[in-house]
Specification:
Distance between the termini: 29 Å
Radius of gyration: 22 Å
Order of helices and strands: HEHEHEHEHEEEEEEEHEHEEHH
Strand content: 15-25%
Shape: globular
Number of helices: 9
Helix content: 25-40%
Mean pLDDT: 89
Strand order of the largest sheet: 2-1-3-4-5-6-9-10
Oligomer: single chain
């Protein structure tokens, strides 16, 4: 990042300077809103979603088409305040609803991030706007495959851009501030919503409509994007981008991995259908603390005999799975505390490299 101009305090910090002087403390860092500060350079990739959607009325919060929303230039025009906190490099992307996004889009996003870092000198960070329905999956996938060393932040909105109280504008501004923060480097892919900063591995959507929709149930958030500064309080310890063993540049498609959801009375039919459809891996979203029902367990055991890798997760949304308490070691692998949808992505990427259960177990313990 370019150095700040010297000897000028932020207007937001200055009112408290006399207090700092009396206490003998150093001044706080300049606010990202400081007009005298050399602006960081941040690229924004717009993929659509609720943030870029426009409804028929400012009071309409639900009925809108996320596939026909604002392109990146129109989105920046809707929320021009983002230019106050950074020099923005807009990067267009084919609009796609969060519930439609998958590997081809992720591969294109990975390549676009590579190009932006190569083409834009002194780029401080990248922000990706995204539909919230699968935002956590895109974030975790990119957290496993990106090879760029600048911060990458995903952001969405719970209310469309046209809404009377849309959260899109402030979420976008805060995402840019986080992406520009030197403290965000080395954190892996981040998710910023509702002034909260979360790590891609732990965060999940927990509410359909509320603004505080993204939480990290087991470990909590990493920090806050407050009005005066971006503050981090902890760091992710699991291995993450760009230092990972996964490289999708030569991968045409992900191996098929399905999720079998535990429920009372399940008879294993879904498991057998997945195997018949060619699944190379199955994630069992089991009862807490991590086991399937008896009929599903029998079907999953048969799947292992046919060479399918089975990873045991839990439908609870929090906590580690403990399949070793019920099953012979090496039969069902543990997803650790990954949600089923994230365990599916890690298993699919693992299967692009190996089918050795011991190696895959190592990856689940690493990432």
């Amino acid at each position: 990042m370019s150095p700040q101009k010297k000897d000028i305090q932020s207007p937001l910090i200055r009112p408290t300077q006399h207090i700092l002087d009396r206490l003998g403390l150093e001044p706080a860092p300049a606010s990202p809103y400081d007009p005298y500060m050399t602006k960081p350079k941040v690229a924004i990739i717009g993929t659509g979603g609720t943030m870029a959607s426009v409804a028929a009325s400012p009071l309409e919060m639900l009925e809108y088409d996320p596939d026909r929303g604002l392109d990146i230039d129109a989105l920046l025009g809707r929320f021009p305040e983002v230019h106050e906190v950074a020099e923005i490099v807009p990067a267009g992307f084919q609009p796609v609803s969060g519930y439609k996004i998958y590997f081809d889009h992720w591969k294109a996003l990975t390549a676009l991030c590579d190009r932006l870092v190569q083409d834009e000198a002194d780029l401080d960070g990248i922000v990706i706007t995204h539909g919230t329905s699968s935002l956590e999956e895109t974030a975790y996938f990119l957290n496993l495959v990106l090879k760029v060393d600048v911060p990458v932040v995903l952001v969405g909105a719970q209310r469309p851009a046209s809404a009377l109280s849309s959260d899109g504008g402030i979420n976008l501004v805060n995402a840019v501030r986080v992406a520009a923060s030197p403290h965000a480097r080395g954190m892996g892919v981040l998710v910023v919503m509702n002034e909260e900063i979360n790590g891609a591995r732990e965060v999940t959507k927990v509410s359909t409509m509320r603004l505080q929709a993204f939480h990290a149930p087991d470990f909590g958030l990493l920090g806050h994007a407050d009005g005066d500064r971006v503050s981090f309080y902890r760091r992710p310890v699991r291995r993450h981008a760009p230092d990972t063993e996964f490289d999708i540049r030569g991968v045409a498609a992900l191996p098929r991995v399905d999720i079998q959801y535990a429920y009372a009375g399940s008879d294993g039919a879904a498991v057998r259908a997945f195997v018949a459809a060619g699944a190379r891996g199955i994630v069992s979203a089991g009862f807490a603390p991590g086991f399937p029902g008896p009929a599903d367990a029998e079907a999953l055991d048969d799947a292992v005999e046919k060479g399918v890798i089975v990873v045991q997760s839990t439908r609870s949304g929090s906590g580690r799975a403990y399949p070793e308490l019920w099953w012979r070691p090496g039969r069902f692998l543990s997803a650790d505390n990954l949600t089923p949808q994230k365990a599916r992505l890690l298993l699919a990427l693992a299967l692009t490299i190996t089918t050795d259960p011991h190696e895959i177990a190592r990856m689940f313990a690493t990432y």
